[in-house]
Amino acid sequence: MAIRLLALVFVAATVVACTGSSAPPLAGLTSTTISIDDRDLTVAVADTPQARGRGLMGITDLGGLDGMLFVFDNDIEAGFWMKDTLIPLDIAFFDVEGLAVDRLSMEPCTANPCPTYNAAGPYRFAVEAPAGDLSFVGEGSVLVLLDE
């Protein structure tokens, strides 16, 4: 009887350990430091189609990061959406020279179809951060990649 009870406790502990040990949602992404208007931000880097497609979906805690930097190989005009994104976000778009193109506030999408948020023009970089954290970004703002 004691052996069965011990085995049951071991199995239960193993199940709890396995379900509780999932990797943090931003695990596997590199992080870097950027500066916008001389304000340093530490951000996760989304520089692959998979990472850009996932973005901050399902994230409620950035784990000490200030946001996410989306990096594109070429100028792009595609919009962003908030499907499966759980927290309101600001997004700032920057061209290849690091000059601000646009800044928008985005709300989590709770029903289909989800709205698309489009920049005012082509961009090479986008930065997402919790709502209000990029409110200082405007015309004339400059993005600098510090860890290059």
Task: Kindly list the characteristics that best describe this protein.
alpha+beta; Jelly Rolls; seven-stranded mixed sheet; two-stranded antiparallel ribbon; 2 helices
Explain the layout of strands and helices.
Elements lengths: L1 H19 L10 E6 L2 E8 L2 H6 L12 E10 L3 E2 L7 E6 L5 E7 L9 E2 L5 E8 L12 E3 L3
Parallel strand pairs: 2-3
Antiparallel strand pairs: 1-2, 1-9, 3-8, 4-7, 5-6, 5-8
Tell me what the structure shows.
With 148 residues, the chain is α+β, with helices and mostly antiparallel strands. It has a single domain (25-145), classed as Protein of unknown function DUF192 (Jelly Rolls), CATH 2.60.120. The protein has helices at residues 2-20, 49-54; strands at 31-36, 39-46, 67-76, 80-81, 89-94, 100-106, 116-117, 123-130, 143-145. The chain has a 7-stranded mixed beta sheet. Helix 2 (49-54) links the parallel strand 2 (39-46) and strand 3. Mean pLDDT is 85; it is low at 1-23.
> Which regions have little confidence, pLDDT < 50, spanning 5+ residues?
1-23
What is the averaged pLDDT score? 85
What is the end-to-end distance? 62 Å
Number of domains: 1
The CATH superfamily is Protein of unknown function DUF192
Placed side by side, the strands forming the largest sheet appear as 6-5-8-3-2-1-9
Which band does the percent of strand residues land in?
35-45%
Tally of individual helices: 2
Can you write the helix and strand succession as a string? HEEHEEEEEEE
What is the name of the CATH topology?
Jelly Rolls
